[in-house]
Amino acid sequence: MLAAVGLLLVVMWSGLNVASAHSICEHETAYYCVRVEVSASNPNARDLYLDRLRHAYVNLDDPKDLDVRYIRIFAGIAAAMPKGPLDALHVGGGGFSFPRYLDAVRPGTKNRVLEIDGELVKIAKAELGLRESKDLVVDVGDARLALKDIPDHSYDLVVGDAFAGESVPWHLTTEEVAQEIDRILRPGGIVMMNVIDGDHSRFARAELATLKSRFRHVAAVIPEAGIPKDSPVNQVLVASQSPLPRFTIDPADGVVISGRAVTDYIGNARVLTDDYAPVDQLVMSV
Asked: What's the CATH code of the domain at 227?
């Protein structure tokens, strides 16, 4: 999922915010088996399941209530950006919890969401409290196609949170996409991206290498205990042409690695391109 206002974040977390689910679909769209459940922790909240995984938690009464680890990391990164409204581009909508959060904590923020699944947007409006407005606009269609028509220097933050099954769609992971995001970000803008990977994190490291091929400064948020060998976790990838601000992340949600540590983490990972992006082969399966 790529998206939002001068910031590209790729986020993945352990404790899997994307928990396995085994019950039947409530809705079948062209892209997902969708189920919405009343949250066990709050009767006024809903959990969104896409295929086998829990993708979002939405408090219908309080958009600032973030029960999903990688969304809290997104929030910590956004909080380090200059105060005031942002222009944010979200690649992937899911439960639309993060654009609703930004709308609540930074009044006047302009959120544009690129979501390929029109039926999922309808479900979010019917069951997850999504309301479009002048400050939260949803465009239905392939984000890769939409990016090329966005004017230069339009966004402060780009947020990547798009998934096809258990991985980011390959055509949203490449150096060519990073180039488009760089073009549409304003000076000082950030991109953050949510990815899910584990063990040797071959995909996460390749995506970081791809961001590093285009942006001067990159970082990642990984679990405090490190990447588990036996299960995938959410990791958040962050990049900018300007030095990254100091993020405040709850240690329970993860630690930030940057500088030499993130270079070591990338290692010899190969940059992803439109001619080489075997994402499904690189990512660790849930």
From this structure: 3.40.50.150
